[in-house]
Amino acid sequence: MYRPQALIFDVDGTLADTERDGHRVAFNRAFGEAALDWDWSVDLYGRLLSVTGGKERIQYFLDEFHRSFPRPEDLNGFIADLHRSKTRHYMRMMAEGAIPLRPGVRRLLEEARAAGVRLAIATTTTPENVTALIGSTLPAGAAGWFEVIGAGDIVERKKPAPDIYSWVLQQMGLKPREVMAFEDSAHGVTAAHQAGISQIVVTVNDYTRSQDFADATVVLDHLGERDSPATALAGEAPQDGVVNLSYLETLFNAERIAV
Ligand code: XBP
Ligand code: MG
User: Which pTM does this prediction carry?
Assistant: First the structure.
């Protein structure tokens, strides 16, 4: 029986439902602080999520949804300042415990650690946001549970480009077929798939539920807890409703038999 050598996790939408009530709110607070009357509603934010990366998302908003806004001479500097402010607001919200981990996340992380399965993160968000979330939801020192944290501008192209997954794999000295990726969005699945990873577990959220996950191994509502079993939108849900190492090994070996 083969088992994955590492589990690589996306952060936003996967470890925690951070977009609607975390990032979106932090963007709006930063806009308010800068005396901008922009308000990213829940619906608009869903459309803005088609572009990953906060700075890139502000640029996209100006290009596609707010063309009448008079552009400052140093547009990149203006966006970078706004984004720094947004990161400050976001980190403060995380420190206040604004967003919990999704069901089953902590359980699976702890099981993997105990079994010596390596852990890593591959995300588009700013590195400080990752440590702020981990710091507010897991025990002290838990950032160290992740051997590699690939985040933000460390690579040139953000998801759906494969760069962040390729970077993490290279840092860990692993091949794509030795790992499993955990994602919540089509962009994330594309990034992992393009990096050569074929084992991809998707846990959807309200923003991503209807996206195309043809390249995923399984699509679930969440990772499941005993009192709140995971159900599948595509593929086989775990029999006992809980995504654990034994279930992941079954997926991992099923693919090896199929190829
Ligand atoms: C996450 C993102 C990020 C966050 C904001 O995508 O798209 O842009 O929304 O983070 P994924 P920053 O989950 O696919 O990694 O503002 O720090 O960029
Ligand atoms: Mg995500």
Answer: 0.96
